[in-house]
Amino acid sequence: MKILYLINFAGKAGTEKYVENLVRIFSAAGHECHFAYCVPGELSRKMEDWGVPSLQLDLGRSGAFSAPKRLARYCSEHGIEVIHAQYPRENIIALLSLRHNSAPRVVYTNHLTQRSGARWRLLNKVFTPRDHKIIAVCREGRDIMIQNGVCPERIEVIYNGVEPAKDRSRDHSARMGLGVGEDDFMMTILARYAPEKGLDFLLDSLALLRSLTDRPFRCVVCGDGEGYEAFAQRKQSLGLGGVVIQAGFRRDTADILRASDLYLNTSSCNEAMSFAILEAMNAALPLVVTDVGGNRDLAETNTVCGRVVQYGDTEGFARAILELMEDDVKRAELSAAAGRKIDEEFDLNKLAWDVFRAYQ
């Protein structure tokens, strides 16, 4: 099958990881993958390195008329059978391209849990019945898409996944380079410094946690973004300078997770199915997460491997951390459950082929 993946920003976040995984798996199985994007970044460079045929399009307002035509021409020339669009804008562009070349089937994955305004609800009602299939990556994402006017009959929930780890044993070797002591209770969060990631809520919860326990702990924040310096200043003002470690963007997050005792997610909105949480579960880390998007699906549905707390409940979040910090038996139980849940429910090698069946 010839599949084209369409995304606006070809950066390094979870959606890009989703596309990267599908391209890698389907290419290895003998299918022909193509890539179209607007803003270059780490993913577009990776596609180039892999030799994936690529097309750069103007997906902004200035390209509203030209992009569908160029996409249609490219699909016609290369015999593309499926356009897999990421996000609403890309989906509209893909569907508009069918006016010029009706051969491809359009499959759309929405990676957000964001409620739309009236204009997008109207656009969704008009356009999404023309999608071949629409993928929601979590149950809340499905429900919100329906509220946003997306055609319910086209929607199927297919979770994100990761390749199950062969070794989930703890390895503290990454701690020294981070400034984390061997006996410190180590928590990790992988997040951009963006408002929707709830990092101020994280600081408030950790400040309260310090008043609840004498046990030394460290929280390692891996990520970059515009809010980095503001976070650093607030961290200092709360007296958390020696507690919260800003590690920046890292490529060794697998090692950092294996050195950790607990994984946190403090998102306030827009979190669908977090790859970072999946990677933490794959490292057999128990979770303390906010009740946003697919977080509850990951931490509690079917198999419990963590605690879910409402965003903004600082005391609830701090006490959930404290419970797992103090109860070694419960933490070990949830740790084992996290790895088992990946094997049974979130195995990428199975879920990728659920996506492929949506193409057919």
Description:
This protein is an alpha/beta fold and 360 residues long. The protein has 2 domains: 156 residues, Rossmann fold (3-Layer(aba) Sandwich); 174 residues, Rossmann fold. 43% of the residues lie in helices and 18% in strands. The chain is built from 15 helices and 13 strands. It is elongated and about 65 Å long.
The protein's oligomeric status is: single chain
What share of residues are in beta strands?
A: 15-25%
Strand order of the largest sheet: 3-2-1-4-5-6-7
**How many separate structural domains?**
2
Outline: elongated
CATH architecture of the largest domain: 3-Layer(aba) Sandwich
What class would the helix/strand composition place it in?
A: alpha/beta
Run of helices and strands: EHEHEHEHEHEHEHEHEHEHEHEHEHHH
> Percentage of helical residues?
40-55%
Instruction: Return the CATH class of the largest domain.
Output: Alpha Beta
Mean pLDDT, to the nearest integer, reads: 96
For the termini, the CA-CA separation is 9 Å
**Rg (C-alpha, Å):** 21 Å
Number of helices: 15
> How many distinct beta strands?
13
- Tell me about the largest β-sheet: 7 strands, parallel
In CATH, the topology of the largest domain is named Rossmann fold
Search tags:
alpha/beta, Rossmann fold, 2 domains, elongated
List the helices and strands and how they pair.
Blueprint: E1 2-9, H1 14-28, E2 32-39, H2 42-50, E3 54-56, H3 66-78, E4 82-86, H4 88-97, E5 105-110, H5 118-127, E6 133-136, H6 139-147, E7 155-157, H7 175-178, E8 185-190, H8 199-212, E9 217-222, H9 228-237, E10 244-248, H10 253-258, E11 262-265, H11 275-282, E12 287-290, H12 295-299, E13 306-309, H13 314-326, H14 328-345, H15 348-359
Parallel strand pairs: 1-2, 1-4, 2-3, 4-5, 5-6, 6-7, 8-9, 8-11, 9-10, 11-12, 12-13
Helix pairs in contact: 1-15, 3-4, 8-13, 11-14
